[in-house]
């Protein structure tokens, strides 16, 4: 029975040592030596199941040590193996005592023990005791929910962050994501801005170490009013690190408010990322129309040559909502190329897209667009009368802003031209706008046309033209 019990004990030791030594450069020498020791002890087939640290007691060291010494293993390796067994033997007891201290009534004791947990993590990783490491995470998580002392709360969060960073460096990314989930739980429910700040900073630090899940959790929490300002300030600093995730989030997030906030953050970030177009260009033809629209909005806020190149590809988008925002964004880029695209936009079949092109040209239009505006004003379409009237109003406003002899000639025709039936081609409202426009142009030709318009008796247009001439004379 003694031999059977010792065989089982040695089997567990072999399991532990095999897992550890398998990572060592000396495994070619050490593993055969350990296996010989197990065979001599009567273990027919070694077990590779996980060793429980509490069963690796000091009395087993002597059994394995004698056989290892006979194999010629150097003393340094032997001491290392012995120390590992000793550490593994007592580590569970140490962990249990620390957990008890973490829940001590004395807040000073609770605060001081946190760093001991963090220091213990490296030993657990070395001993491949992920089962015990998970116990630390559970203990921290449960303590956070009950912790009333702010300093201890902060210490635990920082401890979790430090553990996650260590895990990532050791290639234990999946386990570090458990830290993300713990912190994210409190990110969703906390209202205290000081505590939120430390949670957000911790997730940000973990994200900087390569954990994208931590970054995504911050992005998704942007819908919380209490967290939004802190997250916004934290993430925008990351520039190129965060921009790809923000753009992807616009595609994945369903909540409208969250998407708007992510869009705002993406705009601020794109402005400080020199090669932003590398990431934005991946989404300008996305299957989801609202993603394409958001891309157009971002480009309008950046408003440089690279933005214009992408907007040019989007100007013929199949969705009118996207084209509307493309026109709006083009208006923020003052260049000949953008004006050409806006002029093309005047031909759009969607009334709102045309109106956005006109609004943009009202700010940036040059004499280059005068002929296109003349065509637009004169064109009669299938649109309802009130829609045509709005487009004509805006067209007249753009022309008056540009000015010049060509514009004066167009306004003259709007005031006086009639159909073959003798009716005026344009409504009184449009003709009055043309009179007002001429009144703001201090040229001889404009005054002559106004004088002629003032002769139109029993007409509101004639009355208004006369008032303008009289006011100019008095001035």
Task: Give an account of the 3D structure.
This protein has 475 residues and is mainly alpha-helical. It has helices at 2-21, 27-40, 58-70, 75-102, 107-126, 130-146, 150-169, 173-189, 193-208, 212-220, 228-236, 243-252, 256-270, 277-280, 289-302, 305-314, 320-330, 336-345, 351-364, 370-378, 385-402, 405-416, 428-439, 444-454, 460-474. It starts with a helix and ends with a helix.
Spatial shape: elongated
Kindly report the average pLDDT value: 84
Uncertain runs with pLDDT below 50, 5 residues or more? 43-61
Structural class: mainly alpha
Compressed to H and E, one letter per element, the order equals HHHHHHHHHHHHHHHHHHHHHHHHH
Distance between the termini: 121 Å
Can you count the helices?
25
Largest sheet: none
β-sheet strand percentage: under 5%
Please give the share of residues in helix.
Answer: over 70%
| Cα-based radius of gyration, to the nearest Å | 38 Å
Number of strands: 0
